[in-house]
Amino acid sequence: MEQNIREVVFPQIVKLLTEPVTAAPISKPRKPAEDKPMDFGSFEEVNEYFLIKGWTDGLPIVPPTDAKVARFLKYTDRLPDEVLGALHPSLQPATIQSIAIHGVMAGCEPEYMPVLVSVVEAIADPRFRLEDAGSSAGWAPLIILNGPVIKQLGFNSGTGVLRTGNQANTSVSRFLRLYMRNVAGFIPGVGDMATFGRPDFPVLAENEDSNPWEPLSVTRGFQSGESVVTVCSIGFMSFQITVVALTPEGILENIAAKVKLNMLAGDGTIITKGPEQAPLLALSPVIADTLAGSGYSKRAVQEYIYENSKVPASMFDVWLNQQGLPCACDCVDKGTLPESFCLSDDPQRLLPVYRVAEELQIIVAGTNERNRFFLAQQVGRQGLATSKKINTDILK
């Protein structure tokens, strides 16, 4: 790689900076309708036109007519041309008008507009690092939803929460993919260079009625009763694992063991690509109830899993070796791991599989009748978990 940079990349940069420009500039990724609602043709004609232009996800869209877009704009007090940010890699502006257009296209209801605005605010936040969403890792964004808006707008938070089928969960997720494609420019082979890619997830709404602890939004610093979206990258998601144990401690040991295995099964270099990981642990309500009933707070669960999912440094280093990194101490020397990972050279010292206990994001969702959980990994500093409050005043 170093040789290629020296002998190929740098000479090209010097050439482009020192020679007259003779070629036409590279065109930007296509975008739909220049932020302007369309009102023409039949359903079939509009869909054929959008498909030819590359403005769809390959499935039929709802034509964004003037009337339909106007109904969405009634559910926000912000001006249609207000810009929430310039989205990478296209650097096209994210406007309220374009959000309404894509909400229509995705099959959302007009009442979803406050949620859509907050989702775009999250991905437009520099913290999220949207520019990495087209990396070869091919990660997918996950929207986590908290607050009264879940019931207000009919989001599913129970059985089959990550199944497609519920309009709110499915259409809001589809909106995000369409928006990233058409406005941000993540078109496969253009802005999106995923090696394989991953399927998108429906919105993961927390089952707050069945949650014995504070919801994720409160853990992340918002007030109880506020509606909040959190968007994060998902590079790896485990199987939905059954917990079999006779005691609460047995349940936690079971979860910690699976957290260890699944963190190791993902990209072994993720832990070195801080500044944070924010792995997500989703518990079904029966597991959360059992732990809370035995006196475990969410923080206590985080601490227990963190301490009991550690691995010997020798195993940790093998994990790093598989990804081309020498050892934990070398990573500390390079500043990609904190000093606590190299307090000695003892190969049997225990090292955590993520940096600090509170990084583990715990939510309660899914059916009340099954003792299952899953773990999802964020892709290092790509798609950092970013939360935004939803302005639901207009829904009252």
How is this structure best described in words?
This protein has a domain at 236-310 and 352-377: hypothetical protein PF0899 fold, CATH 3.30.2320. Helices cover 35% and strands 13% of the residues. It contains 13 helices and 13 strands. It has helices at 2-18, 43-53, 66-73, 96-106, 113-124, 149-152, 167-184, 216-219, 248-265, 285-293, 298-308, 313-321, 328-333, and strands at 83-87, 92-95, 140-146, 204-205, 228-234, 236-237, 241-242, 280-283, 311-312, 350-351, 361-364, 372-377, 386-389. Strands 6, 7, 8, 11 and 12 form a 5-stranded mixed sheet that branches. Helix 3 crosses helix 4. The longest helix is centred in the middle third of the chain and has 18 residues, at 167-184.
| Name of the level-1 CATH class of one domain | Alpha Beta
Question: What summary fits the major beta sheet?
Answer: 5 strands, mixed
The H/E string reads HHHEEHHEHHEHEEEHEHHEHHEEEE
The helix/strand class is alpha+beta
How large is the radius of gyration? 23 Å
Uncertain residue ranges: 24-35
β-sheet strand percentage: 5-15%
End-to-end Cα distance, whole Å, is 57 Å
Amount of helix: 25-40%
Mind telling me which CATH architecture of one domain this is?
2-Layer Sandwich
CATH topology of one domain: hypothetical protein PF0899 fold
Mean pLDDT metric: 90
Helix tally?
13
Q: How many strand elements?
A: 13
